[in-house]
Amino acid sequence: MEEQGPLITNDAIVFGILLAILALVFSTAASNNRILQKFYRVVPTVLLCYFIPAVFNSLGIISGEDSNLYFVASRYLLPASLVLFTLSIDLKGILKLGPKALTMFLAGTLGIMLGGPLALLTVGTFFPEVLGGEGPMEIWRGLATIAGSWIGGGANQTAMLEVFGADADLFAQMIAVDVLVANLWMAFLLYWAAKPEKIDNFFKADTSAIYELRDKIADFRSKIMRIPTLSDSMVILGVAFGITGVSHLLADNLAPYIGENYPQLKDYSLDSTFFWIVVVATTAGLALSFTRARNLEGAGASRFGSVFLYILVATIGMQMDLGAVLDNPILFVIGILWMFFHILIMLLVAWLIKAPFFYVAVGSQANVGGAASAPIVAGAFDASLAPVGVLLAVLGYAVGTYGAYLCGLMMQAVSGM
């Protein structure tokens, strides 16, 4: 029986639906209606922008798999938003956040590396078949690709597929586990990002450096704020997409050149076009923060960046199939347990070093989600903090292949026990 496609396949219509969803969410969030105000005190706007497209995708109304919108948003709108967020950032302030941010990122990496074999061993105790299989159909080979995705990103995941040689059908199932489990965790982070105080109080964390940075940026914005003219808006968009174009130009030449001439650098994902797009856009934005271009923030640069980022949130949401868990439930049990161990290790480290929840959330998402979603989670705390997520996510590309490879070897050892 032929599988039925989505009800709506035209990307122009899908894009209209996504923008209508975003408009509905933000207009109701700004409403004076008491019921709506109470609702949004509990449910963050960003969570709805993420989950409503997921429901549409799960019901078969639209399809993230058949749409090009995520590719467009991640390749064009994401780098543009990174430029607009970073051009007014206080780089010295970010550096003053201290070593705890990096510590939590590394704790997240360790959590993924250890969580995979622990989850496989635990589930394998009750369901020995997950430790079996032959050749490319061995479950651990597929799980190793998830490790690549959750420490680095798509390029690292592809590297693990090539290294361990998982079967194509098994890999497809692993992608479903990867997307659903990672997105459920992201939804949890977005929910708590709106009210981190309870967790910070439990950890007895010192959040002063984070709020000092936020207030400093807010103070800078208030001093340069003005009513934007058409000229201002055109300059903002010109800078954002001009640098995005340059990012693509450099990435399209750098990535294949490195892949062909320095194959040993593939271990660091330096042959990934997306990696270079993110790095060039972020670097250019940070360079502009030392020039008069940072005054574009007064005309709403970060507001444009937020629009682009929320469109990306919606396209990420439409990748999520809430019904996929029924296809192979044991694999999802492994994925959920794996994420649980990752979270447990992160929370334990955060408690030991008294790290703010902001570092936990961004450190985790810099691993699990990478550059496409780490700034979303960081921005959910405050839009001015989005660049922190980007800077940590770039580290994920560097350590992803090594961490995932070691994780794969540990899962292979567990399967042979």
Description of the molecule:
The chain has 417 residues and is an all-alpha fold. It is 73% helix and 0% strand. The chain has 18 helices and no strands. The protein has helices at residues 11-29, 34-42, 45-58, 69-86, 91-95, 100-126, 139-151, 154-164, 168-193, 197-203, 208-224, 230-261, 273-288, 301-317, 329-353, 357-368, 374-381, 386-415. Helix 9 (168-193) crosses helix 15. It is globular, with a radius of gyration of 21 Å. The model has no long low-confidence stretch (mean pLDDT 86).
Measured by DSSP, the beta-strand proportion falls in under 5%
**Secondary-structure element string:** HHHHHHHHHHHHHHHHHH
**Rg:** 21 Å
Q: Strand pairing plus helix content: what structural class?
A: mainly alpha
Largest sheet, if any?
none
Termini Cα gap: 40 Å
Helix content: over 70%
What tags apply to this protein structure?
mainly alpha; single chain; 417 residues; globular; 18 helices
SSE arrangement:
Elements: H1 11-29, H2 34-42, H3 45-58, H4 69-86, H5 91-95, H6 100-126, H7 139-151, H8 154-164, H9 168-193, H10 197-203, H11 208-224, H12 230-261, H13 273-288, H14 301-317, H15 329-353, H16 357-368, H17 374-381, H18 386-415
Helix pairs in contact: 1-3, 3-14, 4-12, 4-13, 4-14, 6-7, 6-15, 6-16, 6-18, 7-8, 7-9, 7-18, 8-18, 9-15, 9-16, 9-17, 12-13, 13-18, 15-16, 16-17, 16-18, 17-18
